[in-house]
Amino acid sequence: MHFLLIVFTIFAGACESYRILALLPYTGKSHFMVFEPIVDELARRGHHVTVVSFFPSATPRENRRDVSLVGVAPLNVEVMDLKNYDDASFFARKFYNQFVLVTDLIKFNLDICERILKADVFNEFLKAQGDYDVILVEHFNTDCMQGIVHNYGVPSIGLMSCALLPWGPDRVGADMNPAKFPSMLLPLTEDMTFFELVENTFNMYFYLYWHKYLIRDEQTLLEENVGHKLPPLGDISSNASVILVNTHHTLNGVRVLPPSVVEVGGVHLHNKTVKALPEHLEQWVSQSKHGFILLSFGSLIRGSSLPPKRFDAILRIFALLPQRIIWKWETDDIKDLPENVMVLKWLPQYDLLNHPNCVAFITHAGLLSLTEAVAAGVPMVVVPVLGDQPGNAAYAKQAGIAESVPFYDLDENTLNDALLKVLTPEMRARAKAFSKVWSERPLSPMDTAIYHIEYTARHKGFHLLSRRHDYSTELCVLKYGILSVFSTIIFVIVSSCFGTNKVKVKQS
């Protein structure tokens, strides 16, 4: 009887093995770092996984097939020049820098889309060859892969490496009320002033329509390559059974989300272990009596492109600190370093953050770096530059685990003031306490992700999205837009004519 039970269990397990296609054609390494552990864990659990990406696995696995896109397009690693974001003008800070970034990134991905569709290795997916139970596809600022999803006619699951983009809530049926939820592109939390509400409303709806305008060519491009008409790509994207988002409400703010939008923030840390540091590095950090500070601008930004005035200000402050500093710097031309500063082209960031002597982290507020610091319980000085970094920084500061210094404000005074606050025992205690709050969940991020993937494959898709309706969405846009404009006009007129009285409201 026991033997039969074991045999039944083995065959039952085999029946639960699914064929999974993962379409991850973005060239940014940080994005793939979120998804790689998921596809690897799926393979480890016995599913047959085909992964199309620019980052094929270096470790072959029997039931994982990697389709390499290496060489199809250049990788998006250390390509952002900090000098391009050093304009401190009000217009550049509030609009221009982000506008250029969003526009260039969407155009860049359109070019990548065309290259991929014409690549020989992608031909089988273009023709929808291969039998799959579910498709994983990244939801970012391109719908290039949605035509492939539609051609296969199987359920899909969206993967997001960051918080919902301004056009995201509209697609997944989430509440996008700009009076309650800030755009992830802005340095705002839910506690917004009146003029911040106006700015937030403009930002969210401008980029919602600007995104629709810029990606219109993808529809034509895909239809030319698949050889037939397709439904609107945005509608195919909205039809995903589940969206797995790399956020958690404790760190990234509370959102009103449908059941199909599932937060799995920290999933990239699954089974990640702290490794021993190289001997010279271990000696350097261990011998620092006052601990050490880690500085890195991540994998997308080229830290060595720091403008001279920012660089000199940082060095002057570092020279006054009793702590030692480890700094990610990509070139060999750095000179006149203080004795307490070490620069490295590559550094084991996770291992350093978890070293007992790490007392602070100076970071660009990229979500992966932020998550790793939170998991390690290390307080931060966040220096947001672009993309979702301003929003990430605002929430980290609100959580009491970081001080925020926008890149265009970075100088001796602002950095010194931020470090004085971050290097206190109180801030370190808050970071340790917050780490426990963030990590304690009913299920681990990975188990949560795998459950929803297997559930979707098992039931051949399910529909829990609060489907958006274009007519009602247009009315909401019109309503909030008109309300914001007229409210601003009335507020300015009343203020100038009669003045304003400040009323303090006690909050519980």
Automatic annotation (TrEMBL):
Signal sequence region? 1-17
Query: Which EC numbers characterise this protein's activity in its record?
Result: 2.4.1.17
Enumerate the PROSITE patterns for this protein. UDPGT
Q: Which GO terms describe its molecular function?
A: glucuronosyltransferase activity
Determine the domain of life of the protein's source.
Eukaryota
Tell me what topology the record assigns in the membrane: Single-pass membrane protein
Catalysed reactions, as listed in the record: glucuronate acceptor + UDP-alpha-D-glucuronate = acceptor beta-D-glucuronoside + UDP + H(+)
Name under which the protein is recorded:
UDP-glucuronosyltransferase
